[in-house]
Amino acid sequence: MITDIPLSQLRVFHAVARHLSYSRAAEELALSQPAVSRQISNLEGLLGLRLFDRRGRRVQLTDAGRSLYEYADQIVHLAGEARRAMDGLRNLERGQVRLGLAASAAGHALRSTLKQFGAFYPEIEVRLKVAPSRRIQQLLAEGALDLALAGPDVLPGLHIEFVLSDTLILVSASDHPWTTQPPPDYAALNRQILLWPPRGSGVREAAASFLHAHGLQPETIEVPDWSAIRNLAAAGTGLAFVPAAPAAPELETGRLVQYGPGWTFSFSRCLLSAKDRPLFPAALAFANFARKHETST
């Protein structure tokens, strides 16, 4: 008869199975490689099944290992959630918030809120993850994040805590011909190169809607990050729709030029949580703090 599987052995198995490497699992768990091997051997002895096949330096899961991994993945995840919940309940002054930011929002969105929250709750750590809006939402849905600030096209299963308004503006280099002779109409953009954020970006979706509404199809160049987009625009490579706040320093110095009201439009960002997963105390405290601060300013 198989006795209960120790959680410590299951954690080690889970790490080896994810990495398919004893050495990487040992590094992640801060254990020696012999200790990892011993834990796996003990677990295999307990179950009476081989979980891994080792062929030289390669490690592969057996059928039994693959089956166990499906359960171990859920158990390890739930154990982590339980630990964080108990930590939060023990003392709200301490804890951790895993916050995702859409790449276009990084560096300016929630900046004041984060600073003030840090001063009010100095022992609560806010861990930031920056990625395109769609990826941030996927991580939230998967349980890798507690909260996410992303674009308005929200994936199923996510809850909108509150909505913030941002502004998108069209910018170019200071020596672009449009700075001395403004475009006569929207169609002029079809003769320009537009620097385009990566797929999954909420700003890209908003800008695409603007182009579609005006029947525009300019040539686009996809650029991987917002800093590069602003740098390329300033160098004269093309025009770009960018969030207004992070572009402010370059507008003030004249490195970038903003075009008129007809090229400016609002864009919504949402603070999101998962519908089927209650917020831990620290994350709930942050959501309430951010809602009060952001919607009152």
UniProtKB/TrEMBL annotation:
Transcription as UniProt keyword: yes
Occurrences of domain HTH lysR-type (ranges): 5-62
Superkingdom of the source species: Bacteria
Keyword DNA-binding in annotation: yes
Signal peptide: none
Keywords: DNA-binding, Transcription, Transcription regulation
Molecular-function annotations in GO: DNA-binding transcription factor activity; transcription cis-regulatory region binding
InterPro entries: LysR_HTH_N, LysR_subst-bd, WH-like_DNA-bd_sf, WH_DNA-bd_sf
Stored Pfam families: HTH_1 (PF00126), LysR_substrate (PF03466)
Family according to the record: Belongs to the LysR transcriptional regulatory family.
Annotated protein name in UniProt: Transcriptional regulator, LysR family
Species of provenance: Desulforudis audaxviator (strain MP104C)
Source lineage: Bacteria, Bacillati, Bacillota, Clostridia, Thermoanaerobacterales
